[in-house]
Description:
This protein is of the alpha/beta class. Helices cover about 45% and strands about 25% of the residues. Strand 4, helix 5 and strand 5 form a beta-alpha-beta unit.
Amino acid sequence: MSDASYRDAIFSTPLDRVARFSFDEQVVACFPDMIRRSVPGYGQILGMLSLIAQRHLRHGAHVYDLGCSLGASGLALAGALPEDAFYYTGVDLSPAMVERARQTFTDECPQHSLQVMEADIRQLDYQPSGMIILNFTLQFLPPEDRDTLLARLYNALEPGGVLILSEKTIDADERDNAWRVERYHDFKRANGYSEMEISQKRTALENVLIPDTLDALHGRLAQAGFPRSMTWFQYLNFTSLIAFKES
Length: 247
């Protein structure tokens, strides 16, 4: 990205009261570093998006990126696909994210058709699309809103279209879940986060990020209408699924 990002130090000092996590300007300023150090496999997921698009996206089709944050998925597609291969709409609820994403697209790939809008993805009127990306977004919606959204996305997809759903998950087995969480904290320690940062970030995300099990995600996709979904990537408790709409 053309503008500098900063090291994530949001939870590096003791807080008397840890506020609910939100995607405000403070988070936006350090978001690339935060994602790199706290989301295992994020770069690999981004790297596969264009390869998946090359196999499944009709030339010239529309792509939604829901919860687009700084537009990393759009940049990944634009970096690998011709200007006329797709047109893209990124959607985010954070004004700070939307502003930065728009500027990034203007600076990095002005010839591609990339737009960003500030909106609630639960209330959007969706246009027909060949690919819809939900990278670590569904987990921030209330669980009772998730099935309705996925059904609407299924209806918006063109025949032969695909949905990419990346999420942090939990295990139904408590021992397996504890092991994955412990290793995830090891991952964060190895990336320079302190015990205090790990603890305060976890507190801030309580009742904000509510994960599903992997089986529950596949169940939600089936209920939405997708006849087939598969897990194509998993790293500890982070996973990415692809769901297919039949031609």
